[in-house]
Amino acid sequence: MAYAVTLIPGDGIGPELTEATRRVLDATGVPFTWDIQQAGANVIESEGTPLPSRVLESIRTNKVAIKGPITTPVGGGFRSVNVGLRKELGLYASLRPCRTYTGVQSRYENVDLVVVRENTEDLYSGIEFEQGSDGAAEIARRIEAVSGARVPDGSAIAIKYISETASDRIARFAYEYAKKNGRRKVSIVHKANIIKYADGLFLERARRIGAEYPDIETNDVIVDNMMMQLVQKPELYDVLLCPNLYGDIVSDLCAGLVGGLGIGPGANFGEDAALFEPIHGSAPKYTGQNKANPMAMIFSGVMMLRHLGEADAANRLESVLSEMITEGREVTYDLLPLEQRDRALGTSEVADAIIRRLGA
Ligand code: NAD
User: Fold this and answer.
1) Which CATH number fits domain 107-121+161-257: 2.40.10.220, 3.40.50.2300, 1.10.260.40, 3.40.50.300?
2) pLDDT in the model for residue 54
3) 347 CB within 6 A, ligand 1
């Protein structure tokens, strides 16, 4: 029977990448029925929201979704659809593997990292109070009353919270992932020296869960030091367990270590659903140019195939992608040195080459 999968094209470069990914996944021979659901800025006018409930219902029904990137306005405007999807569907764990493929233009070799990011809390809570609002004034008053600390007048305020339940849940996910995938070490990333209570709780709970996995080494690294360590000696690290905001930043850095955003896949897991998407955003400047690399989204498709239990198809597709990256003949601009970019293939031609190599 065909797998019913919700497919969200997104905006910017999203629709081109989604079409390339859909064609490649169909070419693996695994049967899919695609439930195409639009979300983002382009549905606000017709439906009054960038994240209509039909999208959530589709994912709740199908339990599996793959999506292209969706633009979030900076500063004002609507809140992130990406964050909304993760929160509404309880997709509490983000998994972002970053490994070097032979042939990729990168300063590093043999990087093989997995970022596990808590997806539902922290500064991403979406609880914010605008400068000059009654809410900001009230919160500032309450803070002063309960802590004695004064928030300067006219401040905007964002709330960071970290709970025991969510910390336990993401730590368990990271250690179970490490165990099932033969990983040797989990590094807990935090800033508990300064953010003593919130990050302190994350660290304490993660250590506690880690103690249940004696075969897996645990260490913890303060986030700023982690950034330097990753740039200097990424080979020392394996699974990086992060609260939400640090996880977001660390995963882009890790994508940069292994050749850029064009090949960085991601997945979001909850108790009832999984959503697969590239790490990168909608790269608006490349919209409609058939230029962006579809591999990050196709690698996300590889993760989806594994999640569905289609390991053979996942392995075949991954080895085709790996072979193409190594050869460097049929790739998009971002995988070529500057002086060779005039021979880059477009998004859809890369998909054609993958399909040909799959023998479809
Ligand atoms: P971005 O990832 O869209 O692009 C940064 C740069 O990376 C691009 O200019 C391009 O040079 C390169 N790049 C990204 N994807 C590429 C690809 N597939 N192939 C080749 N090069 C690629 O980051 P941004 O410019 O910070 O964000 C643009 C928009 O995307 C924002 O609105 C942001 O909120 C949104 N965003 C969405 C998601 C998501 O949907 N999950 C994730 C990140 C950012």
Assistant:
1) 3.40.50.2300
2) 97
3) no
